[in-house]
C-alpha cells in the first residue's frame, strides 16, 4: 500500500513464488496480484530506485504495519466472541499476525535454511538501511 499511496509506480503483490509460472491473477488500480498457492508472499515495485528515502521507508513498513493492524483487529474481535471454534480460529490469526509482525520488523538477513526468504533482508533491516541512507538492497 505504501508504494501505491506515496509513489506513481505500479505494485506487484506475489502470493507464492516470483517466477514465470505465477501469472497475474487480477489487478486493482495500480496493484497487480499474482496468486499461486503458497505460505509466503512478496511485494515488488519495478522502479524502486526512483523512490525517495521516505517512500522506501513507507514501502517497507507496509507489511509489518498491516500484520500489526490485523493482529489488533483479530485480538479485539476475539475478545467479544463467545463461540468456541470461532474464538480459537481468531486466536490463531491473532498469534500468527503477531509472529509475522515481529519476524518482519526485526532487522536481520534471513538465514539460508529459511526458504524462500534465505539471504533476503527483513523489512526492518531495509527500513533501517533506508533510514541510515545507505545503498538500496534489491529485494
Notes on the structure:
The chain crosses the membrane at residues 57-77, 89-110. Keywords: Membrane, Transmembrane, Transmembrane helix. This protein has 139 residues and is of the alpha+beta class. It folds into two domains: 1-48, no CATH class; 52-132, no CATH class. Helices cover 46% and strands 13% of the residues. The chain is built from four helices and four strands, in the order αββββααα. Strands 2-3-1-4 form a four-stranded mixed sheet, with no helix packed on it. The radius of gyration is 16 Å and the shape is globular. The mean pLDDT is 84.
List keywords for this structure.
membrane; transmembrane helix; 13% strand; 46% helix; four-stranded mixed sheet; single chain; 2 domains; 4 helices; alpha+beta; transmembrane; 139 residues
Strand order of the biggest β-sheet = 2-3-1-4
C-alpha end-to-end distance: 17 Å
Give the mean pLDDT.
84
How many strand segments?
Answer: 4
Give the % helix. 40-55%
Q: Structural class, from helix and strand content?
A: alpha+beta
Instruction: Give the count of helical stretches.
Output: 4
Shape: globular
Low-confidence stretches: none
Largest sheet: 4 strands, mixed
Domains (count):
2
- Measured by DSSP, the beta-strand proportion falls in 5-15%
Compressed to H and E, one letter per element, the order equals: HEEEEHHH
**Alpha carbon gyration radius:** 16 Å
Amino acid at each position: 500500500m505504501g508504494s501505491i499511496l506515496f509513489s506513481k509506480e505500479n505494485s506487484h503483490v506475489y502470493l507464492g513464488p516470483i517466477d514465470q509460472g505465477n501469472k497475474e491473477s487480477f489487478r486493482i488500480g495500480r496493484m497487480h496480484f499474482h496468486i499461486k498457492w503458497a505460505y509466503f508472499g512478496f511485494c515488488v515495485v519495478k522502479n524502486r530506485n526512483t523512490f525517495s528515502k521516505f517512500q522506501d521507508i513507507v514501502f517497507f513498513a507496509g507489511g509489518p504495519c498491516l500484520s500489526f493492524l490485523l493482529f489488533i483487529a483479530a485480538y479485539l474481535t476475539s475478545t467479544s466472541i463467545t463461540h468456541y471454534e470461532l474464538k480459537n480460529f481468531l486466536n490463531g490469526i491473532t498469534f500468527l499476525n503477531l509472529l509475522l509482525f515481529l519476524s518482519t520488523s526485526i532487522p536481520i538477513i534471513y538465514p539460508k535454511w529459511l526458504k524462500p526468504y534465505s539471504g533476503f533482508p527483513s523489512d526492518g533491516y531495509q527500513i533501517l538501511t533506508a533510514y541510515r541512507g545507505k545503498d538500496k538492497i534489491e529485494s
